[in-house]
Amino acid sequence: MSGGHTHQLYVEHETLVHRLPPQCKLIAVLTFVIAVVSTPRSAVWPYAVYAGALAAVAVLARIPAPLILRRMVVEVPFVVFALLLPVISRGPRVDVLGVSMSESGLAAAGILLAKGTLGVVASILLAATTRPRDLLLGLQHLRMPQLLVQIMTFMFRYVEVVLAEMGRMRVARESRGFRARNLGQLRVLAHSAGALFIRCFERGERVHLAMLSRGYSGRLPTLDGAQARSTDWAVAACLPAAAVLASAAAWFAVGR
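User: That's the sequence. What structure does it adopt?
Assistant: Structure tokens below.
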């Protein structure tokens, strides 16, 4: 993959976090998320530990807080759903700013927001410190099925091509005076979506034929990359270790 396809999410720095092998970071993030999700419902203090651990990683990787906050906009649909939970849930009610809300719904919304936000921030830090090509390399080292690695490789490579095609179609519509101002114009947008699908399908066929003509036999060339050392695994284990210990301590406290 070319460097031109890595600039949007990846933040170029020379830090310890950036230098870690991708497979170490993938396992660390996965373990961290599992520990966060496994936190008992009644425990609150572990979330401060999780947030502190992520903040430490962000500082080490020199990822600015405003950048993380801007990228957290992807969480908006989950935030909307969490805000609706206290309203639509049943059970004992409590007034909050003059609105009757369910106590169990408020608790569930808080847990959902906390766990979802921590998972999103962990993913943002992973994307900001690891190039897409390196992520694929890490998945390959972790023995992910080759077919899935190929699908993600093509996705990374052609997502910008599809977005550029969408931009050209939008410019063509607007140059003909089209403006999406009401629901009656959804028909035009639906036709555009259909045309985009056909163009992408045809492009995919042309790419496949080009690959076959160059000797493609169902497997892409293996990506090269350095193997992870024991010190790399030890450094990467710091984040999930803190999360696992906090989650385990919370379960121990609940069980007493």
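Residues 18 and 253 are 36 Å apart (CA to CA).
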